[in-house]
Amino acid sequence: MDKEIIDNQVAIIPKNITLAQRDLYLKQIALAIQDKRQLIINKKKDIDKKVKVNEYLEGVKKDYEKYYNHALKEKQQQYDAMMLLKQYNNDMMKNEKLLDSELRIAKYEQKDIMNEINKIKNELDEMIK
Questions:
Q1: What's the pLDDT tens digit per position in 3-31?
Q2: pLDDT at 94
Q3: What 3-state class would DSSP assign to 96?
Q4: CA–CA separation, 98 and 110 (whole Å)
Q5: CA-CA distance, 96 to 103, in Å (whole number)?
Q6: How many CB atoms lie within 10 A of CB 77?
Q7: pLDDT (tens digit, 9 = 90+) per residue, 34-87?
Q8: Do residues 14 and 1 touch, judged by C-beta distance below 8 A?
Q9: Quick one: pLDDT at residue 11?
Q10: CA–CA separation, 36 and 40 (whole Å)
Q11: Rounded to whole angstroms, how far apart are CA atoms 51 and 44?
């Protein structure tokens, strides 16, 4: 097994895993990242409320706001990129002479793009509220 150090944590990644196992592992990592991001956003909101009572929390609040603004900007960039990809895919389906199989693939990709756009939009909405 390979060991990889990430942010002072050791990640053990087996060498001989299937593609499906690797995808599952990566999905678990993505979920863990999302959970941590959500935790930080929730703490930022909590500190926003508490800073009104305790002036010493102002520095901590600024740190969370900085991270929050960065995460929000990053999420908005993801949304914008997916919208651009959606438009490109739409243009390609309209303007290119595609075979039936290519058109089916393009429509399938469009469905995936829309699912990802909806997911990102929901995450953005969750961050903003």
A1: 444 444 545 666 778 878 878 887 888 88
A2: 84
A3: coil
A4: 15
A5: 10
A6: 11
A7: 888 888 888 888 887 887 777 777 788 888 888 888 888 998 999 999 999 999
A8: yes
A9: 54
A10: 6
A11: 10
Token pair for 1 = 């097994």
Phi, psi at 21, each rounded to 5° = -65, -40
Average pLDDT over residues 96-125: 88
Rounded to an integer, the average pLDDT of 90-102 is 83
Q: CA 71, CA 123: separation in Å to the nearest integer?
A: 11
* Alpha-carbon dihedral sign for residues 18, 20, 23, 25: negative
Cβ contact 87:117 at 8 Å = no
- Two tokens, residue 29: 């990592």
Give 6-51 as a 3 state SS string: ECCEEEEECCCCCHHHHHHHHHHHHHHHHHHHHHHHHHHHHHHHHC
Supply 58's token pair: 């102002």
Question: How crowded is the C-beta side of 51, counted as CA atoms within 13 Å?
Answer: 15
**Side-chain half-sphere exposure of 125, counting CA atoms within 13 A:** 6
